Amino acid sequence: MTEDPKTLDQRDAARLFSFFTEIGIINQLSMALFAKSLPDGVHPSHFSILNHLVRTGDGITPIRIAGAMQVTKTTMTHSLKVLTERGFITTGPNPEDARGKLVYLTEAGRAFRDAAIQSVVGMFGHLLEPEHYKIMEELGSGLEVLRKFLDENRM
Amino acid sequence: MTEDPKTLDQRDAARLFSFFTEIGIINQLSMALFAKSLPDGVHPSHFSILNHLVRTGDGITPIRIAGAMQVTKTTMTHSLKVLTERGFITTGPNPEDARGKLVYLTEAGRAFRDAAIQSVVGMFGHLLEPEHYKIMEELGSGLEVLRKFLDENRM
DNA sequence: CTTATATGGTCCGACATCGAACCTAATTGG
DNA sequence: CCAATTAGGTTCGATGTCGGACCATATAAG
């Protein structure tokens, strides 16, 4: 019909659907498993925030965390409130911007993150077979290309 | 320390984390894009139910749909209520099981699904490049292995 | 047959997430 | 220097999802 290279033919459309379906199911199943390996009612998103603070260093703004986690600032406000109530983080004023805050890890937060990693690695480690790690490694670069592209083109 | 082949070394643990992180981000970004391409407040999960009914045929039970969509029956009850209110499905008694229901597509539901596909294909089609379809195709089989494994081992 | 258990579905409460509206402070234009 | 716009955060209401409790029917055990 058309020669526009960006027009989807039926095969492309089918690939698109099945690909994102697989991604969605894997995400859902792995997140459910992940959630079960976390202690009493700590959501994976909470763990991710703590993990991000450990890896990139704390003393950063909620907005930056929200950007890294791909969630809205509204969601981040809520998540940080939960983490504060659990004693895993503290917040203080931002000396460079009177509108903003800075987020800091507590010792409890750091310890919780370490324990959670042990728990998660234990659960997945007893489940996955060596071939699965091989697959994950093989898929890594392709996924990265797609992730970066989607990230750059989001609206 | 140990020779247990299922004990994760640091490289495996890192692969595990980065893999599921990529999956999570791709899922989130693509779902957000997907949601934006659907008309006025129809959630991707609602579309998926309609799509499933078209592809596998209607007149099936809510439980079967829930299994296929990987959600709980509680969630399915809610989703079907929304779809019924929008006039996209109807439900009737199950002649073979007095406890159960059967779900049927309406003409409006079928039309909505078709229109949504056009919209989604249009949005992604104008965004993705040929190389991305190639990548998706290459990743398909590996993702399928992981998905099936997670699906069989969920608890 | 009667009882125990499993299954289809709904209701309720909890929670993560989002968008819209809003406030405050920073930045930019004039 | 002042007005307009941008950016960091919070609050509010809505929605999707889940787990637990519950009801009704179907199936299995005795």
From TrEMBL, chains A, B:
Signal peptide: none annotated. Coiled coil: none annotated. InterPro entries: HTH_MarR-typ, MarR/SlyA-like, WH-like_DNA-bd_sf, WH_DNA-bd_sf. Pfam families: MarR_2. GO terms for biological process: response to stress. Residues 1-151 form the HTH marR-type domain. GO terms for molecular function: DNA-binding transcription factor activity. PANTHER family: HTH-TYPE TRANSCRIPTIONAL REPRESSOR YETL, TRANSCRIPTIONAL REGULATOR, MARR FAMILY. This is Transcriptional regulator, MarR family.
